[in-house]
Amino acid sequence: MTAVTAPRVAGGRWASQVLGEAGIGVALAALVAFFLAFAPYFGTSQNVRDIMTQITINTILAVGMTFVILVGGIDLSVGSVIALCAVVAGTAMTDSGLPTALAVPFAILISVLIGAATGFVNGFVTERWVVPSFIVTLGMLYVARGAAQQYTGAATIYNLPPGLTRFGTATFAGLPAVFVVAMLLVAVAWFVLSRTVFGRLIYATGNNEEAVRLSGHRTSLIKVACFVIGGACVGIAAIIYMARLGVASPILGQGYELNAIAAVVIGGASLAGGRGSVIGTLLGACLLGVLSNGLNLMGVSDFQRTMVTGAVIIVAVVLDAYRRRLSVRLS
Amino acid sequence: MTAVTAPRVAGGRWASQVLGEAGIGVALAALVAFFLAFAPYFGTSQNVRDIMTQITINTILAVGMTFVILVGGIDLSVGSVIALCAVVAGTAMTDSGLPTALAVPFAILISVLIGAATGFVNGFVTERWVVPSFIVTLGMLYVARGAAQQYTGAATIYNLPPGLTRFGTATFAGLPAVFVVAMLLVAVAWFVLSRTVFGRLIYATGNNEEAVRLSGHRTSLIKVACFVIGGACVGIAAIIYMARLGVASPILGQGYELNAIAAVVIGGASLAGGRGSVIGTLLGACLLGVLSNGLNLMGVSDFQRTMVTGAVIIVAVVLDAYRRRLSVRLS
Amino acid sequence: GQESTDDPAPGQAGGKPTVCLVMKSLANEYFQQMQDGAVKHVQERNDLTLESTGTQNETDVDGQVALVESCITKLARAIVIAPADSKALVQVVAKAVKADIKVVNIDVKLDDGALQQAGVDVPFVGPDNRDGARQSGKVLADLLGRGGKVVILEGNPGADNATQRKNGFNDAVAEGGLTLLDSKTAHWETDEANQVFASMLTAHPDIQGVLASNDSMALGAIKVIQERRANVKVASFDNIPAVKEHVQSGVMVATLDQYGSKQAADGIDYAMKMIAGETVTGWQKTEIKLITKDNIGS
Amino acid sequence: MAVLEVSGLTKRYPGVTALDGVDLEVRPGEVHVLIGENGAGKSTMVRCLSGIERPDAGTMRLHGRPYRPDTAADGLKAGVRVVHQELALLPNLSVAENLFLHHLPRRAGVVDRAALDRSARNLLAEVGLELSPRTPVERLGIAQMQLVEIAKALSGQCQLLIMDEPTATLTPKETGRLFEILRRLTANGVAVIYISHHLEEIFEIGDRVTVLRNGQHVVTREIAGLTTAELVRFMVGRDLAHEYPPVRARERGEELLRVTDLQVTPATPPLSLTVHAGEVVGVAGLVNSGRTEAMRAIFGADRPAAGRVEVRGRPVRSRHPRAAVRAGLSFLTEDRKAQGLVLDLPIAANMSLASLPAVSRFGLLSRSAENRAATRLAEKLRVASQGVRQHVRALSGGNQQKVVLGRWLAADTDLLIVDEPTRGIDVGARYEIHQLLLDLADAGKGLLVVSSDLPELLGICDRIIVFSRNAIAGEVERADFDAERVLNLAYSGYLKGVSV
Ligand SMILES: Nc1ncnc2c1ncn2[C@@H]1O[C@H](COP(=O)(O)OP(=O)(O)OP(=O)(O)O)[C@@H](O)[C@H]1O
Ligand SMILES: Nc1ncnc2c1ncn2[C@@H]1O[C@H](COP(=O)(O)OP(=O)(O)OP(=O)(O)O)[C@@H](O)[C@H]1O
Ligand SMILES: [Mg+2]
Ligand SMILES: [Mg+2]
Prior knowledge:
The complex is a heterotetramer, with two copies of chain A, one copy of chain C and one copy of chain D.
Chain A: H1 13-22, H2 25-38, H3 45-70, H4 78-95, H5 100-128, H6 133-152, H7 162-169, E1 171-172, E2 175-176, H8 177-195, H9 197-207, H10 209-214, H11 219-245, H12 256-266, H13 278-298, H14 302-330
Antiparallel strand pairs in A: 1-2
Helix pairs in contact in A: 1-14, 2-13, 3-8, 3-11, 3-12, 3-13, 4-5, 4-6, 4-11, 5-6, 5-11, 7-11, 8-9, 9-11, 12-13, 13-14
Chain C: E1 12-13, E2 16-23, H1 29-45, E3 49-54, H2 61-73, E4 78-81, H3 90-98, E5 102-106, H4 112-118, E6 124-126, H5 129-144, E7 149-154, H6 160-176, E8 179-185, H7 190-203, E9 209-212, H8 215-227, E10 233-235, H9 244-249, E11 252-257, H10 260-275, E12 283-285, E13 289-291
Helix pairs in contact in C: 1-10, 2-3, 5-6, 7-8
Chain D: E1 4-13, E2 16-26, E3 31-36, H1 42-50, E4 57-62, E5 65-66, H2 72-77, E6 80-83, H3 95-99, E7 106-107, E8 110-111, H4 113-127, H5 142-154, E9 160-164, H6 172-187, E10 191-195, H7 199-205, E11 208-213, E12 216-222, H8 228-236, E13 255-263, E14 271-276, E15 280-285, H9 291-299, E16 306-311, E17 314-315, H10 321-327, E18 329-332, H11 336-340, H12 347-351, E19 360-361, E20 364-365, H13 367-381, H14 397-411, E21 415-419, H15 427-442, E22 446-450, H16 454-460, E23 463-468, E24 471-477, H17 483-492
The structure holds adenosine-5'-triphosphate (2 copies) and magnesium ion (2 copies).
GO cellular component, one term (chains A, B): plasma membrane
GO molecular function, one term (chains A, B): transmembrane transporter activity
Transmembrane segments (chains A, B): 22-44, 56-89, 101-122, 129-148, 168-193, 221-243, 279-297
């Protein structure tokens, strides 16, 4: 502490801390409480496992998206790229002629590589020619979708290795194994973002790229790396999708990008970059997953469910904004 | 006073001006030349009219989106709102019991009002609680879609007044009447943005909101107004849709938001706000429309068409970025 | 799968009439089969030039309108169309008819009222979705017996074939005396069906049967059934290759093949007849076939 | 009657009371100077007066009437015009549009471009900016922007003009011009609140002075009769013996930096210069004489069109700042907000940004090491904050400047290029920064100090390179230091045919 000006320490620091960290957690808690009261079976262990399984893919995509958004980018292509990864990896598994024990790791590798490669293209084009990632990844959305369709000729890939699909339904310490994978990814991402030099540079670059560049860092590299990480996460999500549903089709994943972005933004990230956290993203994905699951259980009609989903998204961010300002005032 | 501050005398100002204004025009011209050479019937007057009709809706949406993007916002809800406007206005036309001569203007009014109202909600929530418009309009995307479906019970409205559908196929001085409407809108928007005080304030707000506020303007008002204008354009587009297709369905418009945003961004606007022009937007919409039409005519397979569309979008913005830097260097 | 017109003679390539086949999203396996069948058939006939296209996705109505407009511009002699929407395509179809282009409607029937209002009459070549769904559902009803508890997974709300299949399932429910516990859309999608059905099964652990409006959704539901080792049977629609193993294993008791590959070919045949001057109207029903464990082969 | 009466004005921020019951009275026709250390609350006062911030307590009266502005618009309506400490311009808009943004001349809602250009040209002439009114602001250097900012405040009617460090980036010429304008305004009865850390300016232009310390009112006095020493004592609460630290004789060590025929753009003249170890080299010049551009090119922030940069005899090949940093260069930019600070990260993270390897191992950050390093630097630089984890955004302008300086001190490179290092820094802290720079030179580092504050350069440099019209017009050794001589060189490029 460098008290040249004696700072008047104000109370309520702790309260602000908790409220600030909790982020969207308050809205999530309210939602859970509501469903516990009104949605039958919501609190059953079966349903909790369902929710975990259901949020897995979006969580993984959203974790990757967090990296992209933190450096001020956006990736609209994830919904198409997950399809591309899935059909190529799925074909690799079913047609490679390798034994399952080899075919699955091989397919995982391929999936992650394809995801990372599309991420690299997105990032590289964005950085090399200084064009908005919004439009580059919009282009990639079309390219990857077309490529996925071209690759399989629209056919759905099935008879995936049983080892993989067993993993999709396996549990680990009572939790769905796929969910455990997602949590591991969240943990790694949290560690990278909050504890490493790379993570620090990601935040700093998203905040003021020029300042970071003038401090001797290659910001383009950092940004491209974030796109690559985002793409690799899509590759992982593609594998999880296949494990979970046992099929891969070139039309899968439509609209996933908006869900992933929504999770990140609901989690408190700024689309301008530099602000956000992977914990917030996880909470955002939970909120969306709980909402969809709870409304399904309540038997709300499809149209009303659509409306309520929209309304809850809006109310959640408004509440969060309110809370954030409140916590600033308290501190 | 002697020149203590020495202003740079710039050469090549004119060249830069032309290149700068042409914007994406170069890419568009290249594309047209390509299709003239390789797509049969591309240059026929019938096909030119087809293109005009086909780009009308996206142009109108994109003009509205230009306002929103210029103040640094984004509107993801246009695809759903157009459906909501259409079904409500369509119902008003068919069920109001008014004579056509009254029912149609009445429905237009309703459509524009609903569009403007959703725009107002988007803008108001965004500004009042300082939340990202991305997430607010994403919420609205769901709310409006659900509301549209709820309103008609998913039914498609068809027996619209023949007067309206005749207008949809009418020509005016050899041009499709609906296209003329779009061009009028472009002209008005161009005038507002480049000649009026309001237009200057829009650019200024997108540029540096704080500075505009310090100059004594209510930037929130300006921003909300832009959302309202964007919404009103959606209302107009809904009427054009009904005139053109003779139906109004609650599922229409899916993905329109991305097309509209793409047109604006390809047209040179910055998603951070403050940069863009309605002429650029028009060129962007033309590029997308010409691309889709030409590929249709060439009989390119769907999957390849999807891929090519994506690739052209990327190449177009890269070329534009290249050209822009070139023109800066020339200046 | 398209032969391009090198010969600029309007609508006639090498003396052969040009026929446009306009599909919904070819990314859907079913329409892909339909197109493949059409291409093969045209090769066999060898008396026309086929130009086939499809939209980017199933709800891309104005994309399909633009495709039809391009066909008119190209002065095709006939258009065979699987409409993305039974009403929204009527206006442009009428435009084609007025341009003296023969139009044959396949897959989903254009809305009669809308056709009437537009003042055109277009023959429909296609399956009876409602009857097909009824047949598929009946297998399940027979298996479960009266009082069997079932749910329906619906297709896109408002989509014509979705409505008809739902109606057909409802017919089967009524005829078989089943108890319908829930009926919800999963928008034709595997992932969504998986989630929706998981919740259904949580809320109603006593579900005995699922009536899925297409195989993709059935696949999502079967995953839940397998995961929870529930004794639930599925009746479905489409007969895509991926469900074969499930029919064999007995989880899926029935699905319905509507011979998509034949439908477009039939449509083309009718179109050629009309070009030759014959008048074709009304509904030319195409073959559908109930697929069960007994006839799926191995 | 006083134009402005403020009593008991209080403003609290999280953890800090920026203003604590401050009274202020400004009379018509006077220049009322507000001074105080960095973080004393001056800008906060300005923000309250202009309506951007609402005070927590206290009253304001304008011409005897209660004055409670809720927004900047209210302030403007009441005739209060402000030049804020940080630039608030719209880079994509033209100079003319920026000048009249608050009230664009219009006819039926349509911008009257002719009228706009005309008024803009007049205003620009008044502040001595020879620019086309249509020039986009993003093309201007920071000093030109500052002049635009000033011109903006002069457009339209005003009762009370507030200027928060308007001259921080200006050279004496522009400052003189500004003072002429201020005198003309005060002669017409306009009241001026003037904030600056340049004490000599205060004596030149001020009528009365109010001193703030830690958000509290210390004293209000007539300036006539005050001495610099008294003023400094009011500000910092202790005596400062000298304005500049004593310059010790130093060995000129090996050559650290050699720049040969560097051309910033193909059209600019080639530049050559050297800096040796233990040497403080000043870079003087008028506004827009090309100093910043030259420094950026040396550092690789912009790609030079031609030329060589060598550090310790080894050429720096790459044109990226990374190569420069690795070769041992540091660069403190003049625009701290756009190019220096990462506003949403804590002080510690900002300070470690150029020396991350020192606070990390195997790519893992050590927060404790980072905090320790930052705390040490913050103490050295006397950063007024609530601790090194406080976000930089909430710091006062001068303290933000210290944070960026801290980053380069932490990087500990052989050669520091500092562009306007004391911009916006209070006298006490300025002395310390000068001391710090000299300590670095003592430790064998080379320094290239760009400053528009000529006395500062004369006070601490061993040698001054003078820029004029993008070229090096000459060099002056310490033995020959003389303000007039430097200024003559600075003007030489602009006075064609006139011998210096
Ligand atoms: N938005 C804010 N949030 C929290 N603290 C703030 C904020 N703005 C200013 N402060 C604090 O208020 C105090 C006064 O700041 P102010 O900007 O008024 O100082 P100043 O006198 O203008 O200093 P300088 O000479 O450096 O510009 C400082 O301690 C600063 O950290
Ligand atoms: N972004 C830019 N685009 C075009 N010209 C610029 C730009 N930035 C600066 N200039 C011009 O470059 C010249 C040199 O400016 P520079 O900032 O290097 O001057 P300086 O001597 O550092 O002065 P100061 O920092 O006081 O403004 C000026 O004529 C200025 O107008
Ligand atoms: Mg200040
Ligand atoms: Mg400078």
